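Forgive a beginner's question, but might I ask you for the amino acids of a protein and the tokens describing how it folds?
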Amino acid sequence: MLLKSLIIIVFFAMLISLAIGAGYLLRDGSSSKRLLTSLKWRIGFAALLLLLIVYGFGSGQLT
């Protein structure tokens, strides 16, 4: 149950990072440093999400 909750939290954090990045793109333009930082966070969240899913299937907690 904890693993599924973590997966949902990380997924929503990734969506929030996506929305924030879109806001930076509209306000600052494509050469914004804040946009790049938002992309880095989103990549980190995606990697963490992938690791959690692989761990869940490997440990048998996700079927």
